[in-house]
Amino acid sequence: YSLSFLVSRYQDYQSVNPGDYIDIAHTPSFEFSTVERSFGVSNLVYSYDFAAEGVSRHQIGFETAPVVGRLDGHPYLAIPKLFDGWTFRPEAGVRETYYTQRLVPGSVSVAPQAVSDAINRNVFDTSMEIRPPSLSKIFDRKIHGYLIKHTVEPRIVYRYQTGINDFDQIIRFDERDILADTNEVEYGVVNRIY
After folding, report:
1. Is 125 in contact with 164 (CB distance < 8 Å)?
2. How far is CA 161 from CA 6, 147, 183, in A?
3. Which stretches in the chain have pLDDT values below 70?
4. What pLDDT, on a 0 to 100 scale, did the predictor assign at position 18?
5. Which region, left, alpha or beta, applies to residue 91 given φ > 0 means left and ψ of -120 to 50 means alpha?
6. Burial letters 95-114, b for 16+ CB under 10 A, else e
7. What is the pTM for the complete model shown?
8. DSSP, res 177
9. 97: helix, coil or strand?
10. In 3D, which of 58, 65, 49, 70 has the Cα closest to residue 9?
């Protein structure tokens, strides 16, 4: 288990003009999370991440309240399975984020504004990771007295995330806020030499 406390201020200077910067503050943030844990003797594992935060953002033409409340919870379940050298890992979770302010998008003549009208974002996410057996070869010839082993480890991950219908109303403070509906496949091959 992990309990974290954070107070931070981030500034990103946009140009050399005075006052042309983005200022993002966490005043303060509390986060409680856990690594994956099993349910008894079953193969089912769970994890979660909960945060209660005070955040703010200031830049030219845009300013939030001095402290915007943000509550975020992200529990998930997974069932890792091994079958004849193959690894299958289905996972499903939900993410609930509550903000005390929302973004009212601007137009050509009106800048976006932060208004004190709460917004609640509900997200469902699922994924499936498949790892075939690794291919390996131990070379007969030693190099400087060492045996050399080469492995090839393929993997493929499918991710689906939905429920983010109000993306344009979420104020961006950090990585918790940049979620978008996702339907993607990631694949890769890792080569290792031991």
Report:
1. no
2. 28, 45, 7
3. none
4. 80
5. beta
6. bebebbbbbeeeeeeeeeeb
7. 0.81
8. G
9. strand
10. 58
